């Protein structure tokens, strides 16, 4: 039974074959591209559910390819790289990647990451029909996946959306880091506190008047995060 369409982008035919062989066994429909330009065509024509994108490719590397994909598509992207450098990881996430897998990886690890990313882009069941008014400066429209900050409509990426939704649903309560990572990313990510901090930073840049002095998303050091309790009447 086919589970989804995955585009594999890598300049090494052996790597594409390795990934295709294993994901075929998982029930995915696989297409391939050997470079960045071919990948752009495949994304437009095949409309994949997810892209596995190698970073180190000649002519147009994975970062530039991702930048171009994001001009016309929000398809989930997992970056594949031989580098374990944190700066490269952050750069990919800043450009709109959804996850990052370092070569060499096992088929089991890759399959787990794919499932986790595909879960995150599914809309959660809790979706209010009307924008939620937090205060006079901030409203959240979960149905449209956007925040309205001081009159400006700002789109949320799927992972940002799920993270904010979980924080708001628990407004006034401290949510432990491990809980947020498990609920938003999956149980495979509970040790990745750096990933959570990065997405908290992304959210604060989108919703906070002053991200360096947050009003809405508060850090409880050594424990987790808390969304301020907007339901309490102001004095």
List the SSEs and their pairings.
Elements: E1 5-9, H1 13-26, E2 29-33, H2 36-46, E3 50-54, H3 62-69, E4 77-81, H4 86-94, E5 99-102, H5 107-121, E6 132-133, E7 138-141, E8 146-149, E9 152-155, H6 158-169, E10 174-176, H7 177-184, H8 193-207, E11 217-220, E12 224-227
Parallel strand pairs: 1-2, 1-3, 3-4, 4-5
Antiparallel strand pairs: 6-7, 7-8, 8-9, 10-12, 11-12
Helix % is 25-40%
Largest sheet: 5 strands, parallel
Rounded to the nearest angstrom, the radius of gyration is 19 Å
Strand order of the largest sheet: 2-1-3-4-5
Q: Please report the number of helical segments.
A: 8
Q: Strand percentage, roughly? A: 15-25%
Helix-strand pattern:
EHEHEHEHEHEEEEHEHHEE
Spans of at least 5 consecutive residues with low confidence: none
The total strand number stands at 12
Structural class: alpha/beta
CA distance, first residue to last residue: 58 Å
Mean pLDDT: 89
């Amino acid at each position: 039974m086919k589970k989804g369409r995955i585009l594999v982008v890598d300049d090494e035919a052996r790597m594409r074959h390795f990934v295709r062989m294993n994901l075929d066994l998982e029930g995915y429909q696989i297409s391939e591209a050997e470079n960045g330009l071919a990948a752009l065509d495949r994304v437009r024509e095949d409309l994949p559910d997810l892209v596995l994108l190698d970073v180190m490719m000649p002519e147009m590397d994975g970062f530039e390819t991702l930048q171009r994909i994001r001009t016309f598509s929000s398809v989930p992207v997992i970056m594949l790289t031989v580098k374990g450098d944190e700066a490269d990881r952050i750069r990919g996430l800043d450009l709109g990647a959804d996850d990052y897998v370092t070569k060499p990886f096992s088929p089991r690890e890759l399959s787990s990451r794919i499932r986790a990313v595909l879960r995150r882009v599914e809309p959660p069941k809790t979706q209010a029909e009307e924008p939620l008014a937090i205060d006079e400066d901030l409203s959240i429209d979960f149905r449209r996946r956007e925040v309205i900050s001081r009159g400006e409509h700002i789109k949320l990426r799927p992972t940002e959306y799920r993270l904010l939704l979980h924080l708001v649903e628990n407004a006034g309560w401290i949510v432990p880091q491990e809980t947020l990572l498990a609920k938003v990313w999956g149980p495979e990510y509970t040790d990745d506190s750096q990933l959570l901090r990065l997405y908290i930073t992304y959210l604060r840049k989108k919703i906070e008047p002053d991200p360096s002095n947050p009003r809405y998303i508060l850090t409880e050091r050594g424990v987790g995060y808390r969304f301020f309790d907007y339901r309490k009447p102001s004095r």
